[in-house]
């Protein structure tokens, strides 16, 4: 179980680090022109940068605290934050009737929920 949690947390970290950096580096117009970028019409440029920053922080929080053994309770908190972020993404895509994007968001939500559950519960770093 511990190995599965590490693998899932690592994969989530890579995915959200990449997505967050893209949101921080590219302009709103370039993101909107990309496939699946229609959601950017609902947000200002600053909000998109903020979402990118949250994704980068969550990616770091999924792995780094446990690796360095400094405040490892941040791992399930970061995973819980991703659950909330993906919940918001699902709501945004539901409003825009972008049903294909919801499937990916649900997968990320489930994986982040698994890490949060596992690290708060049976495979906690504090126990």
Describe this structure in words.
Pfam families: DoxX_2 (PF13564). Keywords: Membrane, Transmembrane, Transmembrane helix. The protein has 127 residues and is an all-alpha fold. It has one domain (2-120). Helices cover 77% and strands 0% of the residues. It is built from five helices and no strands. The chain has helices at residues 2-25, 28-33, 45-68, 74-95, 99-120. Helix 1 (2-25) runs antiparallel to helix 3 (45-68), helix 1 packs across helix 5 and helix 4 (74-95) packs antiparallel against helix 5 (99-120). The two termini are 15 Å apart.
Features:
127 residues; mainly alpha; 77% helix; globular
Strand percentage lies at under 5%
Number of strands: 0
Name the structural class: mainly alpha
Radius of gyration (Å): 15 Å
User: Element order, helices and strands?
Assistant: HHHHH
Terminal-residue CA separation? 15 Å
Low-confidence stretches: none
Total number of helices: 5
Short précis:
By secondary structure, this protein is mainly α. It is built from five helices and no strands. It has one domain.
Topology of helices and strands:
Layout: H1 2-25, H2 28-33, H3 45-68, H4 74-95, H5 99-120
């Amino acid at each position: 179980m511990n190995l599965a949690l590490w693998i899932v947390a690592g994969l989530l970290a890579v995915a959200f680090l990449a997505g967050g950096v893209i949101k921080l580096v590219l302009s709103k117009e370039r993101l909107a022109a990309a496939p699946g970028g229609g959601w950017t019409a609902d947000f200002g440029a600053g909000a998109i940068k903020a979402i990118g920053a949250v994704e980068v922080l969550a990616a770091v929080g999924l792995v780094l605290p446990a690796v360095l053994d400094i405040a490892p309770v941040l791992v399930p908190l970061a995973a819980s934050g991703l659950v909330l972020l993906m919940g918001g993404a699902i709501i945004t895509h539901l409003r825009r009737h972008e049903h294909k994007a919801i499937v990916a968001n649900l997968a990320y939500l489930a994986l982040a929920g698994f890490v949060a559950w596992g690290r708060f519960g049976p495979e906690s770093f504090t126990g």
